[in-house]
Amino acid sequence: MLVFMSTQTINQDIPGIAQPIDKDIEEMAKAGVHLGHSKAKFHPSMAPYLFGIRNSISLIDLLKTKERLALACDFLKRIAAKKGLILLVGTRPAARKLIQEIGEKTGMPYFTERWIGGTLTNYKVVSKRVEYLERLEHEQKTGELEKYTKKERLKKGEEIERLSRFFGGVRTLKRMPDAVFVVDITFDPIAVREAKRMKIPVVAFVDTNSDARLVDWPIPANDDALPSLKYLCGEILESIEEGIREARISPEEERQTPQAP
User: Fold this and answer.
1) SS3 of 73, please?
2) Residue 209, C-beta contacts closer than 8 angstroms, at least 6 positions apart
3) What confidence tier does 259 reach under pLDDT thresholds 50, 70, 90?
């Protein structure tokens, strides 16, 4: 296993002295956060975050990952502390349960099935679909659907199931979000484009095949492996929850979105 340590902690003039190991970086290394794609898929924008190449695989500098992760988490924490909305996007299979967990624990809106085109650029249309879903669910709960035939009730039920699958996670998106968090920008590029078009800050994991220039708060990391995603999403969840706790005890009600450096 590779061990990543800052050059500031290494004194090559004094051999034999044990060097301190950064526990965060050690955990990230164990989770494979540093493992990128093949050298052939390397995107030039990721050069500042590259540690090196091993067996034709690009390796991410975990010191840079730790630094960028801390900055991004602090940004998301401040958004949550101001009672802001963070739209979570993770539609690739490995990320779905993790994103759903963050959304359900924090009350933040999320997409796990597929990005619905126009969510940000045509928000009113998406909000109307959510309103329609909630109306159907209300009718189902109160028994109002009983006035329809059995066949019509069956169709209504199927429609509720379909709408819930695609729009259930964005029930809390009652207005435009203050930030968008994307697990994989190569898998959900439309979400990134819409956010940029609407001038909404984007926080995202950027693997070695990603264009880091598209992200306001890039976190260089392996966005494919489940252990890596579990570690990183755990950090994201913790930061948002901490911000929410601060919002509950803070008298500050004014929503002010922090700016990217």
Assistant:
1) helix
2) 36, 37, 41, 42, 43, 46, 186
3) low
d(CA 230, CA 58): 21
CA proximity to 208, closest of 191, 224, 221: 221
152 domain-assigned: yes
Domain ranges, residue 157: 125-162
What is d(CA 159, CA 137) in angstroms, rounded to the nearest whole number?
10
Is residue 104 helix, strand or coil?
helix
Q: Quick one: what percent of the chain has pLDDT higher than 90?
A: 67
Are 110 and 205 part of one and the same domain?
Answer: yes
Task: Judge whether 85 and 173 are in contact, CB under 8 Å.
Answer: yes
Counting Cβ atoms within 10 Å, is residue 146 exposed (0-12), middle (13-18) or buried (19+)?
exposed
Region 26-30 average pLDDT: 95
